[in-house]
Amino acid sequence: MDRQHLLDGLMEEIHQEYQDTANYTHCQHVSLAVEEALREVPRDLFVPPDYRDYAFANKPLPIGSNQTISQPYIVAIMTDLLRLQKNSKVLEIGTGCGYQTAILAKLATKVFSVEIIPALHQQALDNLLICGVNNCHLKLGDGNEGWPQEAPFDAIIVTACADEIPHPLLEQLSQEGRLVIPLKLYGQQQLCVVTLDQSRQPHVQPLLPVRFVPFVRVS
Ligand code: SAH
Q1: Which domain holds residue 54?
Q2: What percent of the chain has pLDDT over 70?
Q3: What pLDDT does 64 receive?
Q4: Ligand 1 lined by 69 (C-beta under 6 Å)
Q5: Residue nearest ligand 1's atom 21 by CA
Q6: Is 116 touching ligand 1 by the criterion CB < 6 Å?
Q7: What is the pLDDT of residues 36-87, one digit of tens each?
Q8: Is 70 an active-site residue?
């Protein structure tokens, strides 16, 4: 099947999953901007050669180092929940292979992304270079610390499941910013949107049961 048909099929599945989960997420439709980004970023270049045949399936896939590239629906809904503007400055924790990073780079002005596993950091650098993405900065390190030198961020996305919100990420979120993060709540992973009130106290909105790889705590 040609690329166009594979992409059409994938988008159809994503549209259907938005409908099926709308009661949880309050998002009925994938936004046009996110759909465009999903159609433009070549997911097949981000998955290992052995899995290229499955690159346009709505499924997570292994990327080495015991990690996965997220399911396209999850990439879409997390991106929509960030409510990015053209001039947004975004922080991503958990670069992985760089696919979500490339999607964010289509929608925001600048993306900063931190990865803790050296092999994946290097993979993402290579992948983003091949795709000609030039508005991303990648750092090898512990995402628990965020990227204080570049704060504040209009949006922060965490792509691994944490037990609690790392405090530096809250400090680095702009007053009107949105943090999208999978959190373990009552023993179950929930995709959450976190916003700040006037006194910068976090308001956590759990939206959707999910399955993510664990967020590494170094200390
Ligand atoms: N967005 C990625 C998903 C990768 S899976 C993609 O599209 O491919 C989650 C990633 O989070 C893994 O690469 C894992 O190594 C990374 N990670 C886990 N804990 C981390 C931490 N404390 N700091 C930075 N990255 C972390």
Answers
A1: 3-209
A2: 100
A3: 94
A4: yes
A5: 143
A6: yes
A7: 999 999 999 999 999 999 999 999 999 999 999 999 999 999 999 999 999 9
A8: yes
Residue 218 domain-assigned? no
Question: What DSSP assignment string belongs to 67-117?
Answer: EEEPPHHHHHHHHHHHT--TT-EEEEE--TTSHHHHHHHHHSSEEEEEES-
Mutate to test the pocket of ligand 1, among 47, 93, 123, 164 (most ligand atoms within 8 A of CB): 93
CB 147 less than 6 A from any atom of ligand 1: no
Answer whether 166 contacts ligand 1 (Cβ < 6 A): no
**Taking residues 163-179, what's their average pLDDT?**
97
The domain that contains 13 carries what CATH number?
3.40.50.150
Residue 5 binned pLDDT confidence (cut-offs 50, 70, 90)? very high
Closest Cα to atom 23, ligand 1: which residue?
Answer: 143
Q: Is there a domain that residue 42 lies in?
A: yes
Q: Copy the structure tokens of residue 172.
A: 């680095």
Catalytic residue among 31, 70, 199, 219: 70
Average pLDDT, the chain: 96
Kindly give the distance from the C-alpha atom of residue 74 to the centroid of ligand 1, in angstroms, as a whole number: 14
Only one residue has tokens 């099947």, namely 1
**121: exposed, middle or buried (C-beta count within 10 Å: 0-12, 13-18, 19+)?**
buried
> What's the token pair of residue 27?
């998002």
Q: What integer pLDDT is reported at residue 33 of this predicted model?
A: 98
